[in-house]
Amino acid sequence: MPSDELSKYLETTAKSRAIWEEACRYLPDGDSRNSIFWKPYPIFTESAQGAVVTDADGVERLDFINTMTTMILGHGPEPVLDAVRQQIDCGLAYNSPNRHQVDLARILCERVPSFQQVRFTNSGTEATLNTIRAARAFTGRHKFAKVEGGYHGTHDAVMVSLRIPAGAGGDYDNPQPVASSAGLAPGTLEQAVIIPYNDVDTARSILEAHRDELAAVIVEPVMGSVGMLPAEPEYLQMLRDFTNASGALLIFDEVISFRVAPGGSQEYFGVTPDLTSLGKIIGGGFPVGAFGGRSDVMSLYSPLTGPVVAHAGTFNANPVTMAAGAATMQELTPNVYRRLAELTEMLRQGVRTICAELEQPVTVTGAGSLFGIHFTDRPLRNYRDIAAADKTLAEQMFIGMLNEGFLLAPNLVGAMSMALGEVEVDAFVRAFRRALLRQR
Ligand SMILES: Cc1ncc(COP(=O)(O)O)c(C=O)c1O
To answer: pTM of the predicted model, to two decimals?
Structure first.
C-alpha cells in the first residue's frame, strides 16, 4: 500500500484507534464480527443518518455498503423510525406473539414466490440452519450440497469450503470439503457435498453421484462472499431440475440476494426453490432472519401437531424488529427497486469507464442494487476464479476509498441505498479515479 494512503488513514482515525486499543483489552483483537474487521484496525462509528456515516473522529463518509447490504433505505428512514417509536412506546419484548409478525409474514408470503409459510429468527445463520434441518427432517436424508466459496452463516454444517487454503480443496471437477473453522463437530465434512458455481455439467455430475443421499442443495443466487457474483440462470434451473428429480429440496439463501427484486432473486431469475432463508433488509436494521417455503415442509414446525422440528428463540419475531421490518418492506415498492438498480448500473458503468481510461483491468459484477469490483479482466464465474485474482489492489483501494470518504466492504463490494442519488454516485466514481491514480 502506498505509505501516504496508510498514513492518511492513521492520521484521520486516531480516536477510532484509541477505542480499538481499549476494545482489545476485552474482545479478541477488539472484534466481535470477523466479516467487517480490517487491518490495521477498523473505524468506530458514532452515528449514521441517511447516506452519511460519521466516525469517532468526526469524519463523514458516504455509505455504499449499508451495513453489509442491510440498510436499503439508508440510515434512519422516517417511516421505519416512526414504526419503531410507536412499538417502543408499547413495550420492547413480550412473552406472546405480536401483530407485527403477522404483517411482515403476510408481506413476505405475498412477495416471495416460494413462501407459502414463514418463521422468524434473529439471524440469517439461524435461518439457513433451519432450512437445512427442515430438509433433513423432511427427506430423511443427511447430506447436503453447497457451492464452493458460498457463505451461509456460521453454524457447523455450512462452515465448510468457504475459504480454501492453497493446495486444499481437491481438483476443480472433484472439490473436497474443507473445514473453514476449527472446532466443527466430527462428521461435519462428511455431510457436505461441494459443487462449483455456474458450471452446469460439473455440478450436475457431482450431484448425480450423491443423488439418493442428498437432503438439500443450498445456493446463493448472488454470491455475496466472493464479491457479488450472480448465478447463471441455467445453473439455477439445473439445480431445480436435479432436486425435482432426486427428491432433495432446493434452498435459496437470499439473505443478501433478496435485495434484487420485490420477490428476491427467485423472482429475478424465475426459478422457485422449495425453501428460502432471508435476513438483513427484512429487519429494517434490527437483528433478524426468516426461513420459509412449502407448507408441507413448514408444517414440520407446527406446534399443534408436533413440532417435528423444534424451533424456539426468546427474541424470535420480537415486536420491534417485526415493526421495523414491516415498515421497511412497505417502503420497498417496485419503483424503489428500479431506482436502486438504475443507480447501481450507473456506478458499475462509471467504474468500468474510469478503469478503461486508466488501463486498469476490471470486472464489475452484481445484480440489482448489489455490486462487486474485481481488478481482473479474466472471466469470473465461481470461487476459484475469484480466489485466483490478485487482491492487493483491492485492499489498497478499500483504504483509498475510506480516505476519500466512501464506505465499501473490504473486498470492494457494495450495496446501494435510497439515501444515495446520482450526485453521490458521480462523486463515488470521481473519488475512485483519484484513489486508483494514487495506487500507481
Ligand atoms: C448469504 C448469507 N447467508 C447467511 C448469512 C448469515 O446471516 P447473519 O449474519 O444474519 O447470521 C449471511 C451474512 O452475511 C449471508 O451473506
So the answer is: 0.98
